[in-house]
Design brief:
The chain is built from 2 helices and 12 strands. It has 219 residues and is α+β, with helices and mostly antiparallel strands. The protein has 2 domains: 7-89; 95-218, Immunoglobulin-like. The strands form 2 sheets. Strands 1, 3, 6, 9, 10, 11 and 12 form a 7-stranded antiparallel beta sheet that branches. Strands 2, 4, 5, 7 and 8 form a 5-stranded antiparallel beta sheet that branches. Helix 1 (23-41) runs antiparallel to helix 2.
Amino acid sequence: MSTVQDASSVSSLPGIGTASKSGTADTQNRFLSLLVAQMKNQDPLNPLDNAQVTSQMAQLSTVQGIENMNSRLAALAASLGTNQMAQAAGLIGRDVLVPGDRISPARPDNVIGVELSRPADRVTVSIQDASGNLVRKLDLGPRDAGVSVLAWDGMTDGGAAAPAGAYRFQIDAVQAGQAVAGTALNLGLVNSVSQNAQGVQLNLAGNTSVGYAEIRQIF
């Protein structure tokens, strides 16, 4: 009399217990074929264990359910990405406030944004030229947590107009003598949008790009 492997070894056979090369449908067909063969050729003195067969079928059902869920999630992610691209395309030609510390004395690039993790009783912004020299220091006083926006008038601390060029700014915030974490935000003009492994990207003037989720404010 021929002898067939018991059901406990089914999960070790190719395609059983995993949704790998052949997909769930092929895995299910192979499992059922093996199960039928085992039942036809089982040893009457050592019949198949019902509990083992039930366990194997439950595992197969779980694998199939996970693969179906993954397929639905992939389709949902693709749909969301398409919708987000369409929304982002509407920002082309608009200015957005995003993480960054660049600023220019020429409008409208002189907008400064400050994002605080918690309230601060004093916030200062130090504007520096390309050489790192302090050009202007702005005292913003107390600020709540979240985003605050202000505009630099393009003047230096000495009252003269700052020459055209690239400038950077630094944020310092304290609460009861303790430093408060803050993020510098600058204005960027959206030239185009694209999508990569990180999701939808906004391509800004100056050859920089940021993620769509990084937008803090739209102008």
